[in-house]
User: Fold this.
Amino acid sequence: MLNVNLIRENPEAIKAGIAKKNIDPKLVDKFLRLDVDWRSKTEALGQLNGEQNTLSKELAKKQSEDLLSKAQLLKKRISDITVEENKLSVKRDEALEKLPNIPFEDVPVGKDASQNVVLREVGEKPIFDFKPKDHLALGEALGIIDVKRAAEVAGARFNYLLGDGAMLEFALVQFAVKTIAAHGFTPVLPPMFIKPQVLHGMGRLASDQKEERYYLPKDEQYLIGSAEHTLGPLHMDEVLSNESLPKRYVGFSSCFRREAGSYGKDMKGILRVHQFDKVEMFIFSLPEKSDEEHQLLLSIQEELVKKLELPYRVVQNCTGDMGWVDAKQFDVETWLPGQDAYRETHSCSNTTDFQSSGINAKYKTAGGKKEYLHLLNATGIAIGRMIIAILENNQTKEGTVKIPKVLQEFMGKEEIGARS
Assistant:
């Protein structure tokens, strides 16, 4: 959530910031009105509690009808104000949840992805002397992807990876974790369940994000949509020392998303599914170092795609295509011949103190003051999308698929579908 003091002190800047994300700036005024009312009630409670303490001391010395009557009236007044304060607190929190993180000044302003800014294109798109197949046609022909049986078992937007398809995933995970760990990231296998209040603190139940989540009401738990969701709370309610920062983690998990609002979109194959596996990077940073750490994350993403020898481009997301929690975001889009288009395979975000304030993750300044950390997250490898890119870019006329050199040591072969 946004830092409340920042909203109080710079309301016009907050209005301008959320307007760039296509959010009504009047929501700031609504929050501030509720905040004023809530603060007046908390101040009144503080005064009444003080009076109650004084009265209790007087009663301890001497009891009288007058003092007992005052105590009863005071107790009733405190009870009434507490009810009012609680109601205002709920309304105030609801209003705060409707305010996204504000973008940095250098983020391009735009309404949607069509106004993202392409920063660079890297690598050459493959030229085929035959009609290339899409990943599903290749996967089915090679017997490594099965969506039909998965649909019978689990429904639409699920898949089986079989044989070399499964081996390709294992190879990608090992390659990614090994590469990322070399940059000082600690490997983590995080929980794939998360408590509602913790996911809420990470800002991942705000706005329409709640529609994306799978909730288990009997257990009062959500399934995570990314390892980010449980990597961030790794240092919840902690104060980290400056000497320990930055803390960098690389996590691997399955991810679960409803894909709400995407009905009928990308239904073919494994591009947009309800369950997928992902290697994720996460950093806890000092505020003054977060931009530097953001660039590190982006450079690692590019290193991974380059080593896989895939053509890609880097885009800076405009304000209208950024995530709810993001202050600045880049995407890496990899070329998919089957779609004759670049598609997003990696995102890379600086969320500043938006998430850390929700989970109470802090550091201590040189002056001894406790301040919120900056948190950053980035895709290492989204397994399904990378498999799509590898299959489509490395297919041969014979229907086989050449395995990128960096994955061959993990798979023990150079080609999928080749006769031995």
In short: The first helix runs from residue 4 to 9. The longest strand covers residues 275-285. The radius of gyration is 26 Å.
